[in-house]
Each structure stands twice: as structure tokens, then as C-alpha cells.
Design a protein that fits this description.
The complex is a heterodimer of chains A (764) and B (257).
Chain A (H helix, E strand, L loop, with lengths): L1 H7 L2 H22 L2 E2 L11 H13 L4 E7 L7 H17 L3 E5 L5 E6 L2 E6 L7 H13 L14 E8 L5 H11 L8 E5 L1 H35 L2 H24 L4 E2 L4 H27 L5 H28 L7 H32 L7 H20 L1 H19 L17 H12 L4 E9 L8 H15 L4 E5 L1 H12 L13 H14 L2 H4 L9 E8 L4 H12 L2 H6 L2 E6 L1 H35 L2 H7 L1 H17 L5 H30 L4 H28 L7 H34 L6 H6 L1
Parallel strand pairs in A: 1-8
Antiparallel strand pairs in A: 2-6, 2-7, 3-6, 4-5, 9-11, 9-12, 10-11
Chain B lengths: L1 H16 L7 H10 L5 E11 L5 E13 L2 E10 L7 E7 L6 E6 L4 E5 L15 H4 L7 E11 L2 E10 L7 E7 L5 E7 L5 E13 L2 E11 L4 E12 L10 H6 L4
Antiparallel strand pairs in B: 1-2, 1-13, 2-3, 3-4, 4-5, 5-6, 7-8, 8-9, 9-10, 10-11, 11-12, 12-13
The chains are: A alpha+beta (764), B mainly beta (257).
Chain lengths: 764, 257
């Protein structure tokens, strides 16, 4: 503490130091800050599900692809459009290094058979006479491997599928492609879709929108703070504290070379919501000291305010920091970094709050606060609050219990969803294109089912192939499943062609020899490359690709549940079942996210109970102190559950705010109340004093942060709106919870003589 | 005396330093094309295909060939693996440039199918060899130049650069042709971008009935990281085939003569 008192006497040094650090970090941020948009970087790479998925992706060449939709107002079957499709396909292959393969209607092979004549040839031969095009159309429509998959059934649209290499810089590529496709437009529309496009837009839009919204949040907050605090100086100090916290976090990240992820856009949000509290409490104490002792010297004022606030502010900052550090238990790397650097930011804000206010008194003299009336007004309203709270403890307890019960019910409705598309407005072009692709083709999202056996040639066994077929048929009965592709699809197609479309020939033959011979023939005459995506070289491992019409992880969960019912049948045959693909990884990721969030919540709760118990030397206070947090967290989840706001990386992190802020309020309240009681105030007086003093700071804090983040409700980006709404909600519940149920609980304990430490009670 | 010996020395040195032949590239390749390979042949092929992951597929095939009246007939029967045993493949290649006629017989289906073939660049039985690689490419399709002489495995070879006249997957190839015996010991295939696409190496050859026969060769695809080894066993020439041996009927009967 002496350190702070002494250092505060050198305001010029502090200013210089602060300016130097800020300049250094801002320079580092300006030079090195680059948002990591590759979602694979988020994934915990050593997790068994990810390892298995990566292996399978490698084995079967499963990659994310950019889908180019070529849509003609009437029909793609005309010379100009077909030549254009061919030209785009060739140009994509030749002009872009990022694609490992580009396939389209003009590269696809058709296998057909008539009059004992088996023919494998491209659908598109380059011949664009009317007859050739008409033949091509009828061939496409007869081949279920392409009809409805790559060419829409109404003949107005087709897909060009460009598979991305692993190391492709998707962001730069998409920027380029967006303008590149322009040259091919008219009369056809050329649209880009697929997971990389959605992910790319999302990673770009979120932070971009935040960059627009954030200054508005700050400006609003400055106005509200000024109206509340009636002091330019304290408003400026508050903003310096919160902005420095943000600069410290990001500055350190860039200096240490830690990549900045999209989740990290939540760091300033957190640091502002939390940091403002420190400044307001400092302001509040100085304000009160001046009111109580109008003739206080500036040295005493500086030292006194620090003395009173150093303990609660350090405690609140520590508990908040611990809440963030608990996030480091997460398996998800960006969340771990987030926790660490948010904690550092909080501690930076703490130091600044403790230094800047006393230093400003040394530098500029005692502050002058205007508008006494307003304080008086507050006093009466806190009187109202006090009488309301103290006269109806039963009702408050009852309401709290009801809120908790409803909350837990609502929490059970929270669903995890990593649907990237759900983050966009329904009428946005990205959603519209996705709808179009899902309506005309198989679907924009894939799930890969990976079957593995120890037995060579096991996947030539008709029994195995028939089980795969049954699974595929059951999956395809779901309207959200576009189609499925596996070795059994190839065999059925081959059987149909070889039996020249006999009745019932679109089926798996009963003889393993015949399956083997079909496969041999396919190798000779077809395109053996296309077999490598469904089966491995030794026929010990197979891949079923399921095309889905939504990227919602809830749908994925439903599909996986169906697939899992086939697990026993496969296991009986000695075949293991697993999953792969980026959609699956995102699904596992969201499960991990939830798991990590719950673990870090539990850890935070435990640590906070422990800390409060140690600080106040009383387990009951430790437990009571967490009540407002518990209510805030539960209400937060309940509102998410009732409003259908999915738990995503951003919304999950907001519960950390609930904890950080809830516990701060509780500490300030308990600290002030205990001090008042120790100073000799009776129960009633202590409550009044605490509500007037701390209650005012809590309400100011809540109003300033709520007002600021309410601006996010006007964001064009739905996830940012959700963030805004949840912060407003959490600030409100935290403040309300502290000022009602915590007061009631503290009173109850105090009446029962278990609140104050025994030795203090005895000396009284 | 001295004068003649110097002259002899000069003549000898010219003979050894310059390409030891005054044949043009075209001449060399025509020699290769026209090399005696027997009018009929029978052999067992062992084909080992290795994919990029190092997994291996092995197949053995009984092969019969007959050159008669400008038509090359080939009949192949799979001997193993057992599930494709007796699957057979019949082809007729025409010297006059007509497209090949190809037939496949699947014993489990008991049906013969005619297969359309419009590209010599198609993979031969799913291997790294194309049909073109397995047969002999007509010299007129490329322009040939003798680049240099080189000794490969102790044999004098002429290095021939062949540039395709039309569009090809590998527009430029280099062949190491054994001088005087007119068979290749090595061949490099270059892609349009100038990089090496695949390499054929000959690891063993034999002389049977006075005809040089390559008995072990490997084609390595450097882009896909795959390779195919073909070994020839039980090579026989001058076989007597029944007049209807190269027929659909024989495909169904199996490899009995």
C-alpha cells in the first residue's frame, strides 16, 4: 500500500510511464495484430476425435471446398453456359494454386452401358451442337451420381467444386475470388458457397462490426459516466483505466507473438464492463470522504481513499482474474489465451485505478463535485430500496428461489449450436446462397462416417455393403439430408450399368466375387481416383459422406444418433465406426467448449467461495457471497435458453462477466458492511450506509456498462447483438441480486450472530 | 605408316566421341518400333501397384499376344487375387490407326462387355502404365533427336528426345535405347511445365528365342508418388493359337489353349 501512496505522489512519472507503455504497445499492436481466421487453429489438435478425424481426412482426401454455383435463368443446357462452365473450371485450375482439384459437369465422367457396350466417357466432350447437348442432358438425368448432386434437377444450376489445399490462405483467396467471378457473370449468376466461405465471412464480419460498434459503445459510456459522476476528470480517468487494460492485453499478446483469435474481440468488452467498476468505486469513496470531511487536505484525501479501497479493489480484481484464469482449464487454445490475457488486463486496470485517482488529486488538487441534489436524490432512493429490502425479506427470498428454479429450467433448454450460418441475417446474401445450394443440390455441409476393419477386402463383402446401404437409406429419409455417397453407392451404380438397367439392378449384388470384379473393372475403365474418396487401397476402411442441408450442430447430433444405432451391427462384423470432417470437428469443438465452460464455472465458484471465506474468515460469508453470482449465471443461461440464443464461444464467455462482476459487487458490499459494523454501526445503520455508499457505486457501474453495451443491440451482426443483450442482462441481475438477496442474506446471518468474527462480537 | 596411324586415330576418336551412330532420331525410333518382338507370345505378368501411402496390390495375369495381318490381338486372364480369377480382357489394336476394340469378361456376371476406348493415355489396368506405354508408340507421332550417347548398366545407349506432335499428357520424353539391340533401358516422361512426371526403369531383361525381352520394369509416377512394377515370367514365343483363340468364347473358357 505504501508503494501505491508513494508512487501516487509522482503523477508526472506515472503519466510518462503510462504514455511510454501505451505508445510501445499501440505500436506493437499496429504492426503485428492480425486476426487469425483459420478456424482449424482453434481446435485442440491432440484430442482423440480430432486425431482420428484428421487421419481419415488425410486417407480419403476429405477437404473443405468452395462451391461455385453457376445458375442460368432458364437452363444451363446451352452452348454458351456449358462453354463458360468449362472455361471457369479450367481457369480455376490454372490460375489458382490454392485448389487441389476442381471438378464440374465438364470434368465428370459418365459410365453407361447398352447392347453389351460399356462406355466411360466425359459428359461434356466439347461438342456443343444441339444434339450433343440434348444427349448430355439425358445422360446427366439418368445418372444419380451427378443428377441432383452436382446438377440441379430443374436443370437451371450446376456446381463447380474447388477443393482447397490444406495450407491455402482462405481469406486472401476469397477476397480475390469475389472479384474474379465477376468476369463470368451474365446471363448466368455465379455464386460462392460452402463452409470456407461462411467461415471466412463470419471471421471477417464479427470483428469488423465490433470495430464500428466499439467506438459507439465508448462514446455512449463516456456520456453516461459524465452524467452520473458529474466530473470530467473522473470520467477521463475511468476511460483511461479501461482503455489501458485493453491496450495492455492486446499489446502483450502481440509482443509475445500470441495469435489474436475472433474470441479475443470479447476482451475489450469484458475489460470495459469490469474496469469501470474500479474507477467508480474510487470516485465514490473520494466523493464520500469529501462529503464527510469538507476540509480534508489533498494528501490525506489521496491516502485515505487509497487506504479504504485498496483491499476491496485488490480483492475484486483478484477474484475476477481468477475467474478468467480458470478458463485456462479449457482444451480450446484460444479460450486459454483469452483467459490469461483478460486476467492480465484486469490486473492492469486494478493497478491503474489505485494509482490514477490519488495521483490526480496530487496533480490537480481535490476534485469539485457538482449537483449535491443528485446525491440527495440517490440517498432517498437508497432509503426506499433499503426499506423495501428489509421489510420484505421473505418475499425477496421467495422471488429469488422462483427465479432460480425458472432459471435452472431455462438453463436445461440452452442448446449448443455452432451453426456458422445462424450468425447471419436471414436475408443476407450468404444465407440466401446457402438456401439456394441446399434447395438445388445435396447440401452445403458434410459429415463423414468412417468405417474401419482389420480385415483386408472387408468392404467388398456384400453383407457389409448392404448394411452401409441400409444406413444410407435411413439417413436419406431425413429431409435435412441431401444425399449420401459411399462405396456401396458406386457398386449399386456399377451393378445397374452392367445389368443394363434391369429391374431391381440398382442394388448390391450377393456375390463378393462380382463386387471385386466390378471394382477391378472400375479401376480399368473408370476414374480410380474417385474410388479413393470412399475406400482405402486395401478395402479395410470406408468413408460414407453425408451431405446435410444445414450446418447446425444440433442436426449433426441428430444424424450421429441415427448412425450410432448401426454401431452394434457393424461391430458384430468387426467394423469400428467413427466420424470425420470439419463439420464434425466443429461439433466436437462446441461440446468441448460447453464442457470447458462448465468446468471453469465450477472452478471459479469453488475458488471464490474459498477466497471470500479466507478474506472474511467466515465460510457462511463465502457461501452467501456467491449467491448473486449464482443467480446471475443461472439467469444468463435461462434467458439464453428461453430466447434460443445458442451457446457459442462468444456467448459462453459472457458468463465469465457474470461471475467477475457479480463477485465484485458482493465483495464491495460485504467489505463496506463489515467495516461499518466494526466501526460500531448497528445492523440498520450499517445497511443504510452500505446501500448509500456501495449501492450508489454499484448502480452507477451497472447503468454505465448497460448503457454502453446497449449500443451493441443495434449491431448488424446478430452474434454481437446477443453479446450486447447478455451483458445488459448480466449487469442488471448482478446489481439487483447484490442489492436485494445479498442484503437479505447478510441481515439474516447478522441477526443470527454468525456474521461477524467471534472475537469481534465478543469485544463489543 | 605414321600418317596412317594418325588418320586411324582421328577416325577412331571421331567414332567414339561423337554419337557412335550416324542414325537420326527417327531412324532409331523406327528401329525400336520394328524390332522383332515375336509374332506370338505368352507370358505370366506379375503386376505390383504401390500407392502413395505404400500400400500394395499384387495381381498376376496370364497374357497371350499375336501379331497377324496388321492386327495385334491380346488376351489376358487374371490368375490372382482369387476373387477376380478368370476375369479376362481382350483387345485388338490396328496398325492403320483405328481405335482399339476391347472386351471384358466378368466370370461372376457371366457377361462379356465391349469397352469403349478412345484414349491411349488411359491407365493400363489401374496401374501407372498407360496402354501406350505397354504397346509400341508409332514413331510418326513424335519428332525425335539423338541427344548423346550414354552407358547404362554397361550397355551403350543412345539418348533420344521425343517431342510430341499433338497434345499429350507428357509432351516430351527421353529414351535410353540400347544401340544395336533397339530396346529401351530407361524412359523419362516430362510434363507440359517441363518437370519430370514419371520414369520407367528396366531392371532385368533376357534373351529368349533370340528376342530381347524385358522381364522386370517399374514405372514411377513422381507427382502422385505411386509406382507399378511388372515382372514377366514363363515367356514363350512362337506359340500356335487356334484360329478362334482371341475370341469372346475363349474369354469365358479361361487360360487353356
Amino acid at each position: 500500500m505504501h508503494f501505491f501512496i508513494e508512487l501516487a505522489k509522482r503523477p508526472i512519472t506515472i503519466m510518462l510511464l503510462l504514455t511510454a507503455i501505451t505508445i510501445a504497445f499501440v505500436l506493437s499492436i499496429a504492426q503485428n495484430a492480425d486476426l487469425e481466421t483459420n478456424l482449424d487453429e482453434y481446435m485442440p489438435k491432440t484430442h482423440p476425435a480430432f486425431v482420428a478425424s484428421d487421419e481419415a481426412q488425410d486417407l480419403f482426401g476429405i477437404t473443405d471446398a468452395i462451391l461455385f454455383v453457376v445458375e442460368h435463368p432458364s437452363s444451363i443446357y446451352n452452348q454458351q453456359t456449358l462453354e463458360k462452365i468449362d472455361a471457369i473450371t479450367v481457369a480455376l485450375t490454372e490460375e489458382f494454386d490454392a485448389f487441389s482439384s476442381v471438378t464440374s459437369l465438364t470434368t465428370a465422367d459418365n459410365i453407361k452401358s447398352s447392347d453389351g457396350f460399356l462406355e466411360v466417357k466425359p459428359f461434356y466432350t466439347g461438342n456443343t451442337s444441339d444434339i450433343a447437348i440434348a444427349t448430355m442432358q439425358s445422360e446427366v438425368e439418368a445418372n444419380s451420381m451427378i443428377y441432383g448432386r452436382n446438377v440441379s434437377k430443374d436443370g437451371t444450376a450446376t456446381l463447380i467444386i474447388a477443393e482447397l489445399k490444406d495450407d491455402a490462405d482462405s481469406k486472401a483467396l476469397q477476397e480475390e475470388l469475389k472479384t474474379w467471378i465477376g468476369q463470368w457473370e451474365g446471363p448466368e449468376r455465379i455464386l460462392m458457397a460452402g463452409r470456407p466461405v461462411v467461415e471466412g465471412s463470419l471471421a471477417e464480419l464479427g470483428p469488423k462490426d465490433m470495430a464500428i460498434m466499439f467506438p459507439l459503445v465508448i462514446i455512449t459510456m463516456i456520456i453516461i459516466l459524465f452524467l452520473l459522476l458529474r466530473s470530467v476528470r473522473d470520467t477521463v480517468l475511468n476511460m483511461v483505466i479501461v482503455l489501458f487494460g485493453t491496450i495492455l492485453s492486446f499489446g502483450l499478446m502481440t509482443v509475445l507473438g500470441v495469435p489474436i483469435y475472433a474470441v479475443d474481440t470479447m476482451i475489450p468488452v469484458m475489460l470495459i464492463a469490469i474496469g469501470v467498476a474500479y474507477g467508480i468505486h474510487m470516485h465514490n469513496t473520494i466523493h464520500h470522504l469529501m462529503e464527510e470531511q469538507p476540509n480534508i487536505t489533498k494528501e490525506t484525501l489521496a491516502a485515505q481513499s487509497l487506504k479504504l479501497m485498496i483491499r476491496p479493489i485488490i480483492m475484486t480484481a483478484l477474484t475476477t482474474a481468477i475467474g478468467f484464469v480458470a478458463l485456462m482449464s479449457s482444451q480450446v487454445l484460444p479460450v486459454r489465451y483469452f483467459g490469461l490475457f483478460a486476467a492480465i488486463g484486469v490486473l492492469g486496470e486494478m493497478v491503474l485505478a489505485l494509482l490514477l485517482f490519488p495521483a490526480s488529486i496530487h496533480l490537480l488538487g481535490k476534485p469539485t463535485y457538482h449537483a449535491r441534489k443528485q446525491t440527495l436524490g440517490k440517498r432517498t432512493s437508497s432509503d426506499h430500496l433499503k426499506s423495501m429490502v428489509l421489510q420484505h425479506p421473505g418475499s425477496i427470498a421467495l422471488v429469488s428461489v422462483v427465479v432460480l428454479v425458472f432459471g435452472i429450467w431455462g438453463t436445461s433448454k440452452v442448446w449448443i449450436d455452432t451453426s456458422f450460418l445462424a450468425n447471419f441475417e436471414e436475408d443476407s446474401s450468404i444465407v440466401q446462397i446457402d438456401h439456394l445450394v441446399n434447395e438445388k443440390f445435396g447440401g452445403t455441409s458434410n459429415l463423414n462416417i468412417i468405417l474401419t476393419s482389420d480385415q483386408v477386402d472387408h468392404f467388398k463383402d456384400p453383407e457389409v455393403l448392404k448394411t452401409m446401404e441400409a444406413l444410407q437409406q435411413e439417413l436419406e429419409s431425413n429431409v435435412m439430408v441431401g444425399n449420401t455417397l459411399s462405396l456401396s453407392t458406386f457398386i449399386k451404380q456399377m451393378n445397374q450399368v452392367m445389368l443394363e438397367y434391369e429391374e431391381g439392378s440398382h442394388s448390391i449384388p450377393d456375390s463378393q466375387e462380382l463386387v471385386s470384379q466390378y471394382l477391378l473393372l472400375y479401376e480399368f475403365s473408370g476414374d480410380p481416383e474417385s474410388l479413393t474418396q470412399v475406400v482405402d487401397y486395401e478395402y479395410t476402411s470406408a468413408n460414407i459422406t453425408v451431405q446435410l442441408k444445414s450446418d447446425s450442430s444440433a442436426l449433426l447430433k441428430q444424424i450421429i444418433a441415427v448412425v450410432d444405432t448401426y454401431r452394434p451391427s457393424f461391430e458384430q462384423m468387426g467394423i469400428r465406426l467413427g466420424y470425420a470432417g470439419s463439420g464434425y470437428k466443429a461439433f466436437i469443438f462446441s461440446e468441448l467448449l460447453l464442457e470447458g465452460q462448465i468446468i471453469s464455472l465450477v472452478i471459479s465458484f469453488g475458488i471464490i467461495v474459498l477466497l471470500l471465506t479466507l478474506l472474511f474468515r467466515n465460510l457462511r460469508i463465502g457461501l452467501v457471497g456467491t449467491v448473486p453470482i449464482a443467480i446471475t449465471a443461472v439467469v444468463n443461461f435461462a434467458v439464453m435458453g428461453f430466447l434460443g440464443i445458442p451457446l457459442s464461444s462468444a456467448t459462453a464467455l459472457i458468463t465469465s462477466i457474470a461471475i467477475g462482476i457479480g463477485v465484485d459487487y458482493a465483495i464491495h458490499f460485504l467489505e463496506h458492511y463489515t467495516n461499518a459494523r466494526l466501526a460500531g454501526a448497528n445492523l440498520e445503520e450499517a445497511t443504510t450506509q452500505t446501500l448509500v455508499h456501495t449501492g450508489r457505486a454499484i448502480i452507477f457501474n451497472a447503468i454505465a456498462v448497460m448503457g454502453g453495451f446497449a449500443i451493441l443491440l443495434f449491431s448488424v451482426f446478430p452474434p454481437n447483438r446477443q453479446v450486447g443483450a447478455l451483458i445488459v442482462l448480466n449487469m442488471a441481475t448482478s446489481a439487483l441480486g447484490t442489492l436485494t438477496i445479498l442484503v437479505v442474506a447478510v441481515h439474516h446471518l447478522d441477526r443470527k450472530q454468525v456474521f461477524l468474527p467471534k472475537h469481534i462480537r465478543q469485544t463489543k | 605408316m605414321k600418317r596412317t596411324s594418325i588418320l586411324l586415330l582421328i577416325i577412331l576418336s571421331i567414332m567414339f566421341v561423337l554419337p557412335a551412330t550416324d542414325l537420326s532420331g527417327e531412324d532409331v525410333m523406327w528401329n525400336v518400333y520394328n524390332r522383332d518382338s515375336g509374332d506370338t507370345m505368352g507370358a505370366n505378368l506379375i503386376m505390383t501397384i504401390t500407392n502413395a501411402r505404400g500400400s500394395v496390390r499384387e495381381r498376376s495375369i496370364a497374357q497371350y499376344r499375336q501379331d497377324l495381318d496388321g492386327v495385334e490381338s491380346k488376351l489376358m486372364f487374371f490368375l490372382s487375387p482369387s476373387d477376380v480369377r478368370n476375369t479376362s480382357f481382350l483387345s485388338f489394336s490396328y496398325e492403320d490407326g483405328r481405335n482399339d476394340d476391347q472386351y471384358i469378361y466378368l466370370p461372376a456376371l457371366k457377361r462379356v462387355k465391349r469397352i469403349a476406348s478412345d484414349s491411349k493415355n488411359d491407365s493400363f489396368m489401374g496401374s501407372d502404365f498407360t496402354y501406350d506405354d505397354m504397346g509400341s508408340r508409332h514413331p510418326d507421332l513424335d519428332r525425335h533427336t539423338v541427344l548423346r550417347t550414354e552407358t547404362v548398366s554397361g550397355l551403350p545407349t543412345l539418348v533420344i528426345e521425343s517431342i510430341a506432335q499433338g497434345a499429350e499428357d507428357y509432351p516430351r520424353t527421353l529414351s535410353w535405347v540400347v544401340d544395336g539391340q533397339w530396346f529401351g533401358l530407361k524412359k523419362e516422361f516430362y510434363l507440359p511445365d517441363g518437370s519430370l512426371g514419371k520414369t520407367l526403369t528396366i531392371d532385368a531383361f533376357d534373351e529368349i528365342d533370340g528376342i530381347a525381352v524385358i522381364t522386370d520394369m517399374t514405372m514411377s509416377n513422381h507427382k502422385q508418388n505411386t509406382s507399378t512394377r511388372i515382372q514377366m515370367q514363363d515367356v514363350e514365343f512362337n506359340l500356335e493359337f487356334e484360329s478362334n483363340f482371341f475370341s469372346e468364347r475363349q474369354m469365358k473358357i479361361g487360360p487353356r489353349r
